[in-house]
Amino acid sequence: MRRRMINTASLLLLMCTILLVPSNAFAAYTIGTETPFPTPSVKESYTSGDVTFSKTGHPVFVSNAPESIYDHQVNKTLYRDTLNGTFRFWSSHRNMTTENVKFFLYVKNPSATNSVKLYLIKDGYGDSNAGGDVTKAASTATSGFMSSKNAGGTYLATIAPGQGYAYEYSAAGGIASQKAIVHIADFRAVDVTTGSDANVKISDISTNTGTTNLAAYANTATIASTNYNAKTKDDYRGLLQYSGRTADIHLTLTSAAPARFITQSDDGGYINEQDILLSRWNIDGNPQDQTPASFNGKIRGAYWCTDYTYHINITNSSGLPNVYTLYGSRTSGAFINYKISTVTNRHVDKGNGIVINDTPTYTLHTIVQPSNNLPLSLDFVAQ
Questions:
Q1: Which residues contact 83 (CB under 8 A, 6 or more apart)?
Q2: What is the pTM of this model?
Q3: How many helices (H) and strands (E) in the chain?
Q4: Residue 215, helix vs strand vs coil
Q5: d(CA 208, CA 261)
Q6: How much is the pLDDT for 232?
Q7: Of 19, 142, 224, 275, which sits most exposed with the smallest number of CB within 10 A?
Q8: E runs forming strands in 109-163
Q9: What pLDDT, in 10s, does the model give residues 10-41?
Q10: What pLDDT is attached to residue 269?
Q11: 3-class state of residue 203 by DSSP
């Protein structure tokens, strides 16, 4: 009888041990596979001193409102602002008119004396003319931008004092009705006389009249209104100060917490991660002092089209031999774009991540594409 009782006690102890072991301990992870996130996994607090960011790069011209373009928003500037030197331009729109619409980046040289040279450093483009939606177009544009390499830049034009240059970024023939366009590009404006960075006035223009009236559209007292209302946060246009973030991540995995994760989200952020979107035009298209864009009182921040460089250093004190990184989304299906050695673009289902690495110390590059579902999740898992 005593022997049977000992065996029963041992069995109960074993069952309790199994229940306490996280589910990831039994999953065989393979690089490149999609797999459910481990449970439990501890979210790192936004106030954690073990996840810190520094801001890098150059200003970003954001034109994502009006996102859907209707008849009254064609042949108008969608957003306009002044940039200096190197800047990022990203635009994401959907043509809701019955005609093809073309999109132009119109660059005006405001100087009265000096000419300006304009260079294209790198770009990515996607549209849904051949099928798909704005999310797929954004996925194509983002992966293309991450793969683009042209450090010296491609010369585009010399712009005389007071004159402008029209750079068509939509496909030949424009964007068809009910189709979407996403364009991401880095440019540089250089003063021909001094060789230093130059100011340029940038307008994102939608048109169905060709190039004839672009200079006039870029010089109006008002711009297109957005589609903003109490339920539609169609307000995302303005300038961000920085195009990049560098993050230092120092997390420890233990036997009690063998899985930890951080998020990429537009709600909150880690130390020094966020950047406020500032707009010189209100939702009705009237000029204003540079003001934070907001939706129902929530200040709009930066995630989309931002270069993230994560320096990851995971200490493994869990007693388990391996450390893996999973990248995906806990809350919805989403696209992820990342680079460790090569650029990779994947779609993941809700609750899943892609196993992207199997070392505790490495550098990860990502960009959160426009139109993506957030938050995204980076999980570090001992196994």
A1: 59, 61, 189, 199, 200, 202, 239
A2: 0.90
A3: 3, 27
A4: helix
A5: 47
A6: 79
A7: 19
A8: 116-127, 154-159
A9: 444 444 444 444 544 445 799 999 999 999 99
A10: 87
A11: strand
Query: End-to-end CA distance of the chain, in Å?
Result: 39
Label residue 365 exposed, middle or buried (CB < 10 Å: 0-12, 13-18, 19+): middle
- Give the pLDDT band of residue 163 (cuts 50, 70, 90): very high
- Quick: pLDDT tens for 333-353: 999 999 999 999 999 999 999
Closest by CA to 227, choosing from 373, 99, 72, 89, is: 72
Amino acid in position 200: V
CA dihedral sign, ordered 297, 303, 306, 311: positive
Rounded to whole angstroms, what are the CA distances from 267 to 69, 270, 294? 27, 10, 13
Question: Is residue 327 a contact partner of residue 376, using CB atoms and an 8 Å limit?
Answer: yes
Q: Which amino acid is at 196?
A: S
Amino acid at 323: V
Residue 24: other Cβ atoms inside 10 A: 23
Chain position carrying tokens 């008119």: 97
Query: What's the token pair of residue 67?
Result: 């996102």
Dig out the tokens for 80 from the structure: 């306009």
Ordered DSSP codes for 218-253: TT-SS-------SS-----EEEES-SEEEEEEEEEE
Grouping H, G, I as helix, E, B as strand and the rest as coil, residue 191 is strand
Helix (H, G, I), strand (E, B), or coil: what is residue 139?
helix
Residues 302-318 pLDDT 10s? 888 899 999 999 999 99
Residue 174 CA to its chain's centroid (Å): 24
